[in-house]
Amino acid sequence: MSPDVAALIARMAALLRPLEDAEDPARFFLGTYLRTTRAVEAALDAGMFEDPEWVARWDVDFAGLYLDALEAYRADPAGPAAPWRLAFGAKPGLPPEAHVLLGMNAHINFDLPQSLVRVIPQEEFAVPGRLDVRRRDHERIDAVLAGRVAAEDVALELAGGRRSLLDRVLAPANRGASRLFLRESRRKVWANAGALHDARLRGAADYAVRLSALEAASSARVADLLRPGPVLLRLAVHGFGVTPA
To answer: End-to-end CA distance of the chain, in Å?
Structure first.
């Protein structure tokens, strides 16, 4: 067991308790994320990854970006980056799965490329063999997430009350779509991480411009998910991930 991941889980649990006590809708994404992090910890213990020490370090860094944004928003709603302001500021009455989808979208599209650039050493981007190890472990996270989809669907149903017959009929299709969207978004994340790295090599100013473009694209996708109408249909048309201009 990684002590850093254990500390991360403890931090998540400590932040979740007051959200649950206050029935804050932020509890839905954090609860899902906590359960997923425990699943990642189990996968680490089971030897699922080629470089478990790196995966543990990445897991902590990535989650920290979300947790820092959550704490910043609770201190001042204007504090975090735009994708998180939109996700955290969504109407409380939305279904639990909608809050989770908004949180996932902001976190994967905006935070994940930044985290990959932070935890992959610069020199490894120029060594295809080493970068392939990072990419494969990055993709193995998909298996962990896919393994959680059905269980999280049940957990969110319990959190959000009784669903309609149509919701129940569509649930298996929604689960399959969720897996496809996660795989599609991670491919774009990998490309965006490479673009951030290239910008970083050109200097701080270029990196800031590229990060601003990623923030704008991620914000636009969260805003689109907040519009009324069939969310899954829009995701099928536009995809889950983003490609900054």
So the answer is: 41
* Cα 184 from Cα 243, distance rounded (Å): 12
Cα–chain-centroid distance for residue 89?
A: 17
- 201: amino acid identity, one letter: L
Closest listed residue to residue 242, CA positions, set 200, 199, 194, 187: 187
Answer yes or no: pTM beyond 0.85.
yes
Residue 142 is given by DSSP the state: H
Ramachandran area for residue 14 (φ above 0: left; ψ -120 to 50: alpha; else beta): alpha
Give, in order, the Cα–Cα distances in Å from 21 to each of 24, 87, 91, 193: 8, 20, 18, 37
User: CA 64 → CA 58, 75, 109, 174, 225, distances in Å?
Assistant: 10, 16, 15, 28, 24
Q: Which of 92, 79, 102 is nearest to 29 (CA)?
A: 102
Coil/strand/helix, residue 164: coil
- pLDDT digit string (tens) for 7-52? 999 999 999 999 999 999 999 999 999 999 999 999 999 999 999 9
76-109 exposure pattern, b = at least 16 Cβ within 10 A, e = fewer: eeebbbbbbbbbbebeeebbbbbbbbbbbbbbbb
Taking the C-alpha atoms of residue 221 and residue 103, their distance in angstroms, rounded to an integer, is: 12
How many Cα atoms are found within 13 Å in the side-chain-facing hemisphere of 181?
24
